[in-house]
Amino acid sequence: MASLTQMVDEHATASGFSGVVRVDVAGDTVLARAYGMADRAHAVPHTLDTQFGTASVTKGFTALVVLRLIEEGLLRLDTTIRQVLGVDLPLVADAVTVEHLLAHRSGIGDYLDEGVVGDITDYVMPVPVHELASTERYLPALDGHPQISVPGERFRYNNAGFVVLALVAERLSGRPFPDLVHALVCEPARLAQTAFLRSDQLPDRAAVGYLSADGIRTNVLHLPVLGSGDGGLYSTAEDLHRLWSALYAGRIVTLSTLTEMTRPRSDWPEENRRYGLGIHLHATTDTVFLEGLDAGVSCASHHNPTTGSTFTVLSNTSGGAWPLVSLLSRILPPAREQN
Question: Which residues contact 180 (CB under 8 A, 6 or more apart)?
């Protein structure tokens, strides 16, 4: 039977994968491989330390920031967003709570509705991307979208809700959202290479995002110049591994809060999964995961708390990560079935 490394190499070659793959089993790193170019124009290859855009993986960090603020007594799951928004975003229903937003059950209108977007590389932001350099600057993009359902009525994946959560966190704490992520998540988890980076001044260790499997056209005009609560964080495979270790050791939030975070709030049968608070849950097992997809970004990090095993796939192309995510989901030891 082919080894894990051989199977991953074959799939990476067949799919033209560009990125990094890491697999840890029972506390040991059994595979860590880099493929392709971080900067095609200058022929800079990926390394295991390359920082990648993570798109919606950021939502997990946002959830952790909010849950930390709840633990500190600044808000509650049942706090209504209107209490913090004041007169801003008047089309958001007064009944929408923090928990509704974290669980994608708020029913608010979305500035980036993935249910109606076709090819993610065709999507154009409703405001100039260079203006989106802070969470408050997102307000014009978030405004003007009517409620689409009653708060709490049903699950519908929603990007705007996590920007609103970042806005709430900023206003209650008096600190910029990137600083909150650093202080409340990255520092306790010892994530030295995870941060919000401006797309127009990426450091030399960061991967450039590409719109296609070849060519040098980048995603710089497709994404906010600086991310917020729904996406835009950069990280490495090692840091995402550290995140899971710290989370399940109780170093970011308490273990009772983690239990609440991973309690299923919704079934998501179209995607063969369930959803908690800012985190994806396997349909039948106790595996938890974060994933992201955007123009020039695709990534996923899966953790099996029963075995302590983790795999992470990071790519700087739109959708390039999924063949390897599918492979690793099939061949790694299964998680414990839940009742």
Answer: 65, 169, 170, 173
Whose tokens are 């996923």? That residue is 300
| pLDDT of the residue at 1 | 47
Q: How far apart are CA 286 and CA 305, in angstroms?
A: 7
Q: Which of 47, 152, 174 has the alpha carbon at shortest distance from 104?
A: 152
List Cα–Cα distances, 331 to 95, 310, 325, in angstroms: 44, 13, 10
Radius of gyration (Cα) for the chain, nearest Å? 19
Mean pLDDT score, 300-321: 95
Q: Residue 48 has which token pair?
A: 């295991």
pLDDT of residue 119: 72
Q: What is the pLDDT of residue 116?
A: 66
**Separation of alpha carbons 15 and 52, rounded Å:** 19
Amino acid at 139: L
Distance from C-alpha of 291 to C-alpha of 324, rounded to nearest angstrom: 13
DSSP per residue over 298-332, as a string?
A: EEEEEEETTTTEEEEEEESBTTTTHHHHHHHHHHS
Q: Would you state the torsion angle of the CA atoms of residues 20, 259, 273, 119, taken in this order, to the nearest 10 degrees?
A: -50
- How many Å apart are CA 304 and CA 267, to the nearest integer? 19
- Least Cα distance to 288 among 272, 299, 274 occurs for 274
115 pLDDT above the threshold of 70:
no
Question: Amino acid identity, residue 78?
Answer: D
Q: Once rounded to an integer, what is the mean pLDDT over residues 84-109?
A: 97
